[in-house]
Design goal:
Helix content is 49%, strand content 16%. By secondary structure, the chain is an alpha/beta fold.
């Protein structure tokens, strides 16, 4: 296995665990995204990996894109092109991986972090976990596949409420909505997730991969198209006055004052 600056990798029998491990709530910078792409590709190719387990370090699964990194990149940065080169590729890799992926959601999953969490096949959540649309607070639209995964899992009305209100969804409510498969105490999360992953790894993984492929075709056949649509609308949203206000408020740690412009 390779070593990475922002990821921790472990191998237990045929289960590969990838732990997101970057200060500032496991928010992604450009290097971390590249590392996750590489780690997923390596796990896909490695015959010794029969199941992938994805989690986060500390108190947070992932806060999504590190906004300060995007600000440092400058006004010339295209949000649409950024998505096409980063999170869109991560989500497609995860869904096209012909091996099961278990998500151990240890804390808050927000923005692109929510998209990555929802791209896993089975999700176990710690009792403290929260699921946050996140983009709304920044005057942005959804991306990283959230526009498809969220309504597919919880229904259009609930997905719209979650996105429009930007209110955190607690773990028990996420379970009731069908967003996660199981909620467990924090101390039990990794043992429970590893038990599920080991059971899947011991199963007919070729068949599981084919089932995943068929489910993708049946339920997520427009994923690539939706990811591109997300990139286009996010590019539009990134040029609005509301987005600039959202960024200002985020950096100043104050409530935004949106004007619909």
């Amino acid at each position: 296995m390779r070593t990475y600056r922002n990821l921790l990798l472990e191998q237990a029998d045929s289960v590969r665990t990838i732990t997101l491990n970057r200060p500032k709530a496991n928010a992604f910078d450009f290097q971390m995204i590249d590392e996750l792409l590489d780690a997923i590709q390596e796990a896909t190719r490695d015959p010794n990996v029969r199941c992938l387990l994805l989690t986060g370090s500390g108190q947070t699964f992932s806060a999504g894109q590190d906004i300060t990194i995007m600000q440092q990149a400058g006004a010339q940065t295209s949000y649409g092109d950024h998505l096409r080169q980063t999170f869109n590729r991560v989500v497609l890799l995860m869904r096209r991986m012909d091996k099961p992926i278990v998500g151990a959601i240890n804390g808050a999953a927000a923005g692109a972090g929510l998209g990555i969490a929802l791209a896993t096949d089975l999700r176990l959540a710690a009792e403290r976990a929260k699921f946050i649309f996140g983009f709304t607070a920044l005057g942005l639209a959804g991306d990283s596949g959230v526009s498809l995964f969220l309504p597919a899992l919880v229904g259009l009305a609930r997905a719209t409420e979650i996105a429009f209100s930007n209110s955190p969804l607690a773990a028990d409510q996420a379970l009731a909505y069908g967003l996660v498969n199981r909620v467990v105490p924090e101390a039990d999360l990794m043992p429970a997730a590893m038990q599920v992953a080991a059971s899947l790894a011991a199963g007919p993984t070729r068949a599981l991969g084919l089932i995943k492929r068929a489910f993708n075709e049946a339920m997520l056949d427009r994923l690539e198209e939706v990811l591109e649509q997300e990139a286009q609308v996010q590019e539009i949203a990134s040029h609005t006055a509301d987005h600039q206000e959202g960024i200002r408020a985020f950096l100043a740690k104050t409530a935004p004052s949106f004007r619909g412009e």
